Amino acid sequence: MSAAAVAAVAAAGGFEVRAVGSEEELVAWGALCARGFSHRGGAPTRFYDKYRVDPTAALAATRVVAEHSSGRLVGSVRVFARTWRAGGDAVAVAGLGEVCSDPDYRGRGIARLIMDDAVRFCEEDSGAVVSALHAATAVAPLYAQYGYTSVRIPYAVLRLDGGDGGGDGGAGAGWRSPSGVDYRARELTSTAIAHEWERLAVLHDAATARLGVTGTTQRDGRYWATWMPYVTAGALFIVLETGGAAAEGAVEAYACIAKKPDGFKLIDFGCSADVDASAVAWLLRFTAAAAIAANAASDPASSPLVPPVVLLPAAVPRGLHFDADVADLGDATRDDAGWMLRPLAGPAGRRADESRVAYTALVDAAAGGTFLVWQSDSF
Fold first, then answer.
1. Euclidean distance between CA atoms 58 and 51, whole angstroms
2. Taking the CB of residue 357, how many other CB atoms lie within 10 A of it?
3. Each residue of 176-194: pLDDT tens digit?
4. In terms of Cα–Cα distance, which of 183, 162, 172, 378 is closest to 272?
5. In the chain, what is the greatest distance between 2 CA atoms, to the nearest angstrom?
6. Domains and CATH numbers, the chain
7. CA–CA separation, 127 vs 354, rounded Å?
8. If you count Cβ atoms within 10 Å of the first and of the last residue's Cβ in the chain, which end, N or C, has fewer?
């Protein structure tokens, strides 16, 4: 649908569809999103704060539906500019997030106005060749009507009883591998992530290559310094270093585990090209046990999962060739089926060939179980 057609449909209902126009309106947009997603809880300013830490955020890509008579913002979608890895290439992706409507205006066609404009913007103005979003099951049929196709990210269950010293000791605990290499765990704060991002970035890229996955986000220094500390706040971020407690060694891997509604989940990860898989398994178990213990200490009144479930993308145990006693790969009900993809041919189809190649690479990766978007990179 063209911009003129979207505008005509909106006007017929007493609305207009446009970009956020000012800093003041951006604050109002954040408040709208908080109302639209009130069922999820969280700070009222969280969407404004998230916008501020996103190095690619732009007012022009923050789209709203406004009521003509009052000027009230009643619908939202933000287009996230990202670069994914697909088939060995860097692919420009237009991610849709913050898709919501004011609860007082639901049932008046706001969702369709939002999506009509979002798809038009992605095709004409984003410069991307693929659009992506993560949808709840209830609204996936709406997105399918706009050409989005569902893909799955398989997940595995981490076994916590491996007998490798995974334990629930505090950060700084150590472990000796069967080959005699000493390792220790160290927790990183949000500030430390921003300061140590260069080492973490090397490990993240190395893990992408080692796991053989497609779809991971390419991160630059600004992304590491602002976005990553924000999205991992509240999670447990542990690095694995060689050497004993008194020695300074190399950082060989990191794991970030957060409490989610469906259990504890590995939301970000990196490892060197040659770190031993047994050391990574120890790091994952250590981080999981520490995250579970920290959650119990911070919220003792919560109902704990019995036993606690720790999920990690199946690409990790497969790519690192973990033994069966480390991770259970057999439960497809744990998979993330919320991601949806759409090719973007661009104005007058000028990017059709490039889009077809990129979209096919992503869909084929999903069919082969190697499509992966880390939750820390979700829109």
1. 9
2. 16
3. 988 899 999 999 999 999 9
4. 183
5. 73
6. 3-153+335-377 (3.40.630.30), 156-332 (3.40.630)
7. 12
8. N
Exposed, middle or buried: residue 261 (CB in 10 Å: 0-12, 13-18, 19+)? exposed
Whole-Å CA distances, 253 to 63, 118, 263, 272, 288: 39, 38, 23, 6, 15
First vs last C-alpha separation in the chain: 24
CB 132 within 8 Å of CB 93: yes
CB 290 within 8 A of CB 345: no
Instruction: Return the closest-CA partner of residue 238 out of 220, 210, 257.
Output: 257
DSSP readout, 304-338? Answer: --SS--EEEETHHHHHTT--TTTEE---GGGSEEE
133, β-bridge pairs: 96, 340
Which pair of tokens denotes residue 66? 């406004």
Peptide bond into 307 cis (omega under 30): yes
pLDDT higher than threshold 80 for residue 148: yes
Burial zone of 186 (CB within 10 Å; 0-12 exposed, 13-18 middle, 19+ buried): middle
Question: What does the alpha-carbon distance between residue 257 and residue 210 come to, in Å, rounded to a whole number?
Answer: 20
Q: Could you give the CA distance from residue 63 to residue 78 in angstroms, rounded to a whole number?
A: 6
- Alpha-carbon distance of 177 to 196, in angstroms, equals 25
CA angle 286, 309, 241 (to 5 degrees): 15
Say which residue the tokens 């447990």 belong to: 236
Cα gap 199→113, rounded to integer Å:
44
Going by C-alpha positions, the residue among 89, 67, 92, 66 that lies closest to residue 81 is 92
Q: What angle do CA 78, 237, 374 make, to 5 degrees?
A: 40
The reply to whether the predicted model has a pTM over 0.85 is: yes
3-state secondary structure of 35: helix
Query: Stretch 337-355: mean pLDDT, rounded?
Result: 95
| Per-residue pLDDT tens over the stretch 24-44 | 999 999 999 999 998 888 888
> In this structure, how many other beta carbons lie within 10 angstroms of the beta carbon of residue 354?
18
Give yes or no for residue 57 having a pLDDT over 70. yes
Angle made by CA atoms 253, 160, 276, in degrees to the nearest 5: 30
